[in-house]
Amino acid sequence: MTTTLTGLPPALRDRLKAELQRGERLIYADRPGIEIGWGACVTALFYIGFTLFWCAISFSFGFVGWASALGFAPSTMKGGGPWMGWFFALFSLPFIGIGLGLLFAPLHAFAKQRHAVHAITNERIMTVYSKPFAATESYAASKLTFLHRQDLRDNRGSLRIGYGTDRDSDGDIRRLEVTWTAVKDARRAELAILELMRPGK
Length: 201
Description:
Layout: H1 10-19, E1 26-30, H2 38-69, H3 75-78, H4 82-114, E2 116-121, E3 124-129, E4 135-140, E5 146-151, E6 157-167, E7 173-183, H5 186-197
Helix pairs in contact: 2-4
């Protein structure tokens, strides 16, 4: 873990430095690691299994539909008329799109995480992303309401940080929160946020 800008890659260092306002002091800054735990592994296995099943069905359905539309389908599909092939071909596109999204979503999330840095200053917490995901998520210290830490091995863990409440479509109150996953030193980050949340700070 680092509390300075010098330990960060140049792109992230420049992005975080540009975010700091006059008088704002950096307390904590570190890039998220890779979350490895039984829960994450089980979730990943279920996700991979469902994704492969969805892609196998949707891609096969799309292949048969487009083969029929182009005149290469078995005679059983041709019996429905030429419009039947085009119907199945076009109907398969949303399912193929969902399958591609399921395939590439983890890669996108991993790439975005590699361009991220979690930071705590004397005024707020924030997550800064460098290009090509250039963005900043920022929450003022006065908005922080609760903090929950989940520990993994080697001091790693995740933090759920509350920043207020809202009402859902039914009018029920729900807590607003942001999650920092794969924090390399979760306890130290927790202490820094608790100090930021201390009354009279």
